[in-house]
Amino acid sequence: MPKYEAVIGLETHIQLNTKSKIFCGCKADSWGDPPNTNICPVCTGLPGVLPVLNRVVVEKAVLLAAAMHADSIQSLSYFARKNYFYPDLPKGYQISQYDEPLARDGTFNLPMPDGSSRQVKITKLHIEEDAGKTVYQSGSRLIDFNRCGVPLVEMVTDPDLRSADEAAQYLIRLRQLLRWLGISEGDMEKGQLRCDANVSIRPAGSEVLNTKTEIKNVNSIENVRTAIQVEIERQIREVEAGGIIESWTLNWDDDSGTLRKMRVKETEADYRYFREPDLLPIRLGEAWRDDILANLPELPLERRVRFVDQYGLPLYDAEILTEERSLSEYFEQAVSTYSGEPKVVSNWLMNDVLRMIRELGVKAGELRLQPAHLVEIIHLVEGKRITTNTGKALLDRVEESGRSPAEIVEEEGLAQVSDEDTLRALVSETLEKNPEQVATYQAGKTTVIGWFVGQVMRETRGKANPQVVQAILEELLSDR
Ligand SMILES: [Zn+2]
User: Fold this and answer.
1) Would you place residue 140 in the very low, low, confident or very high pLDDT band (cuts 50, 70, 90)?
2) The pairing of beta strand 248-253 with beta strand 213-218
3) Is the pLDDT of residue 424 over 90?
4) pLDDT reported for residue 322
5) What is the pLDDT of residues 336-393, one digit of tens each?
């Protein structure tokens, strides 16, 4: 048993994918836009302006809170001013929530790769505005205000995670959920999902909470894993050497892959929070709340369990098919029109359609190859109208052209050749042309029959029925 265990809590900031910003009408998504082009007096904090809350921000945040099984989504929550000075924060304060956040006490069921699961408590979830961005360029600081006022959800966990791997798993599952709910792409490289980690260690099995350090500015899930691991090991070394852990803030340095000490962490009092006087509280009435929750879909883990129960899929299949929401819907649509075992559809999806999805870099729901097309192809193969190979090639042809599989088979003469006379003639011809391989066969090396099947398949451009070819080959070779 290891001597120490890690105690990790995560604070994540999630950029919501609304059209406009949280308190003004400026475009929220500035990715790729020139600096300072999506700004107005409100989001740059000019005197005399008033913020107006974007309703959709509340709706997306409530959806996330509900997906976290947050018992207490508040019917009344308040905005607060978080006062601090930073060059890319033009107002000198950030509008956030503090003592009365949107939701508290959620639970995130975190499935672990080994099949176990861990319940991570979500302490609180609140909404706030993003700050601008400072760009360091040849010794100067350049400020881009485009990001000012982009809506964020901040979500804080209890210190429930016990290893760097669990922290990474949390982020992977959170990103999956954000995409599933359609509220954010959760791309860490683009800053749509940001993560600060609080890390401490203690003797394994102990309940104490020791002094923690905070890791900031990590820009990928992999780096979060590495940074936490590095920090756990540093703390263990420090404690073993008789030292003490101080409450540092550590900055991840991407270039060197190391953590650097920043400054002694501010206490919350430094922010001088007070209620935001320019905004009314968020009043989430029952009717509005019910409207929002009507859009809460079945969640990935629930769907995974259902796929196993309802369709008899192996857990492995169910896991892959529920990785992305439109893929799981694609599967169900296909199964609903297919008469055979759901596992057959799952195989085609996991082996061939997923390859296509990855190559094209799209989601299942964006394919031109519709679930009905896929089922049609499976039926053509099962009805022996086309070979499996032709079926697989057809997937790409349908995707490229958007035409129906039957149409393509008809027009391009792809139908499988099962006609015995035609194939018999072809097999005879192949045997005549290759006396050497025939001799090999007659010398007892019967595996050469596979080579002959290959020749005939090539001759027919993959359209020959391989079982029929094999049977004719066996017959003709033994007659010689
Ligand atoms: Zn604006």
Assistant:
1) very high
2) parallel
3) no
4) 96
5) 999 999 999 999 999 999 999 999 999 999 999 999 999 999 999 998 888 888 899 9
What is the whole-number distance in angstroms between the Cα of residue 202 and the centre of ligand 1?
Answer: 46
- Tokens representing residue 179 in the block: 């995409």
The H or E element that residue 184 is part of is none
The residues facing 200 across adjacent strands are 7
Q: DSSP string of 371-439? A: HHHHHHHHHHHHTTSS-HHHHHHHHHHHHHH---HHHHHHHHT---B--HHHHHHHHHHHHHH-HHHHH
- Burial of 286 per CB tally in 10 Å (0-12, 13-18, 19+): exposed
What's the gap in Å between 263 CA and the centre of ligand 1?
Answer: 32
68's enclosing H/E stretch is none
Residue 440, both tokens: 């090999």
What is the average pLDDT value for the chain, to the nearest integer? 92
Structure tokens at 173: 């599952």
Q: Mark the residues whose beta carbon lies below 5 A from ion ligand 1.
A: 24, 26, 40, 42-43
Distance 147 CA to ligand 1 centre (A): 9
pLDDT for residue 426 = 85
What distances in angstroms separate CA 131 from CA 43, 93, 126, 145, 252, one per listed residue?
9, 9, 16, 8, 20
**What's the whole-model pTM score?**
0.85
By the 8 A CB rule, do 9 and 108 touch? no
